Amino acid sequence: xxxxxxxxxxxxxxxxxxxxxxxxxxxxxxxxxxxxxxxxxxxxxxxxxxxxxxxxxxxxxxxxxxxxxxxxxxxxxxxxxxxxxxxxxxxxxxxxxxxxxxxxxxxxxxxxxxxx
Length: 116
Prior knowledge:
By secondary structure, the chain is α+β, with helices and mostly antiparallel strands. The protein contains 1 helix and 4 strands.
Protein backbone atom coordinates (compact mmCIF):
# COMPACT_ATOMS: atom_id res chain seq x y z
CA UNK A 1 0.00 0.00 0.00
CA UNK A 2 1.36 3.41 -0.99
CA UNK A 3 1.07 6.53 1.24
CA UNK A 4 0.26 9.80 -0.44
CA UNK A 5 1.85 12.70 1.38
CA UNK A 6 3.64 15.94 0.64
CA UNK A 7 7.39 16.01 0.75
CA UNK A 8 9.29 18.62 2.71
CA UNK A 9 10.44 20.29 -0.51
CA UNK A 10 6.84 20.68 -1.71
CA UNK A 11 5.78 22.24 1.58
CA UNK A 12 8.72 24.68 1.59
CA UNK A 13 7.92 25.65 -2.00
CA UNK A 14 4.29 26.43 -1.08
CA UNK A 15 5.39 28.53 1.91
CA UNK A 16 7.84 30.49 -0.26
CA UNK A 17 5.12 31.19 -2.84
CA UNK A 18 2.69 32.37 -0.15
CA UNK A 19 5.33 34.67 1.37
CA UNK A 20 6.11 36.19 -2.05
CA UNK A 21 2.42 36.81 -2.76
CA UNK A 22 1.90 38.34 0.69
CA UNK A 23 4.87 40.69 0.30
CA UNK A 24 3.56 41.90 -3.08
CA UNK A 25 0.12 42.53 -1.56
CA UNK A 26 1.59 44.50 1.35
CA UNK A 27 3.70 46.69 -0.95
CA UNK A 28 0.68 47.46 -3.12
CA UNK A 29 -1.57 48.12 -0.09
CA UNK A 30 0.56 50.95 1.38
CA UNK A 31 -0.39 53.70 -1.09
CA UNK A 32 -4.05 52.70 -0.93
CA UNK A 33 -4.09 53.15 2.84
CA UNK A 34 -2.43 56.57 2.55
CA UNK A 35 -5.00 57.70 -0.02
CA UNK A 36 -7.78 56.58 2.31
CA UNK A 37 -6.27 58.56 5.21
CA UNK A 38 -5.88 61.58 2.92
CA UNK A 39 -9.54 61.36 1.87
CA UNK A 40 -10.64 61.15 5.51
CA UNK A 41 -8.54 64.17 6.49
CA UNK A 42 -9.68 66.37 3.62
CA UNK A 43 -13.32 65.39 4.10
CA UNK A 44 -13.32 66.52 7.73
CA UNK A 45 -11.19 69.58 6.93
CA UNK A 46 -13.71 70.56 4.25
CA UNK A 47 -16.51 70.40 6.83
CA UNK A 48 -14.40 72.50 9.19
CA UNK A 49 -13.78 75.07 6.41
CA UNK A 50 -17.52 75.30 5.71
CA UNK A 51 -18.33 75.77 9.39
CA UNK A 52 -15.58 78.39 9.77
CA UNK A 53 -16.85 80.27 6.70
CA UNK A 54 -20.34 80.41 8.18
CA UNK A 55 -18.90 81.60 11.50
CA UNK A 56 -16.83 84.25 9.70
CA UNK A 57 -19.92 85.62 7.94
CA UNK A 58 -21.64 86.11 11.32
CA UNK A 59 -18.69 87.25 13.48
CA UNK A 60 -16.15 88.65 10.98
CA UNK A 61 -13.46 86.44 12.54
CA UNK A 62 -12.50 82.77 12.80
CA UNK A 63 -12.77 80.78 16.00
CA UNK A 64 -10.51 78.26 17.72
CA UNK A 65 -13.37 76.93 19.87
CA UNK A 66 -15.14 73.87 18.46
CA UNK A 67 -18.44 74.50 20.24
CA UNK A 68 -18.81 77.87 18.49
CA UNK A 69 -19.04 76.16 15.11
CA UNK A 70 -22.46 74.99 13.91
CA UNK A 71 -21.35 71.50 12.86
CA UNK A 72 -19.23 70.55 15.87
CA UNK A 73 -19.65 70.31 19.63
CA UNK A 74 -16.06 69.14 20.04
CA UNK A 75 -13.11 68.12 17.88
CA UNK A 76 -14.04 65.39 15.36
CA UNK A 77 -13.08 61.90 16.50
CA UNK A 78 -10.78 59.86 14.29
CA UNK A 79 -8.58 56.80 14.67
CA UNK A 80 -5.99 58.35 12.37
CA UNK A 81 -5.93 62.10 13.08
CA UNK A 82 -6.16 64.80 15.70
CA UNK A 83 -7.97 67.81 14.24
CA UNK A 84 -7.23 71.34 15.33
CA UNK A 85 -8.48 74.84 14.56
CA UNK A 86 -6.19 77.76 13.94
CA UNK A 87 -7.21 81.40 14.07
CA UNK A 88 -4.69 82.06 11.28
CA UNK A 89 -7.10 80.83 8.59
CA UNK A 90 -6.54 77.05 8.42
CA UNK A 91 -7.52 73.72 9.97
CA UNK A 92 -5.03 70.93 10.57
CA UNK A 93 -5.26 67.14 10.65
CA UNK A 94 -2.19 65.82 12.49
CA UNK A 95 -1.45 62.09 12.24
CA UNK A 96 -1.67 60.12 15.44
CA UNK A 97 1.43 58.07 16.34
CA UNK A 98 1.67 54.91 14.27
CA UNK A 99 -1.01 56.05 11.80
CA UNK A 100 1.18 57.57 9.10
CA UNK A 101 3.52 60.52 8.90
CA UNK A 102 1.68 63.04 6.73
CA UNK A 103 -0.20 65.98 8.23
CA UNK A 104 -2.88 67.72 6.20
CA UNK A 105 -3.99 71.36 6.25
CA UNK A 106 -6.79 73.25 4.53
CA UNK A 107 -7.46 76.96 4.50
CA UNK A 108 -10.89 78.06 5.65
CA UNK A 109 -11.57 79.15 2.06
CA UNK A 110 -11.41 75.43 1.14
CA UNK A 111 -7.95 75.28 -0.47
CA UNK A 112 -5.48 72.53 0.35
CA UNK A 113 -2.30 74.13 1.71
CA UNK A 114 1.09 72.99 2.95
CA UNK A 115 1.11 72.65 6.71
CA UNK A 116 3.20 75.30 8.45
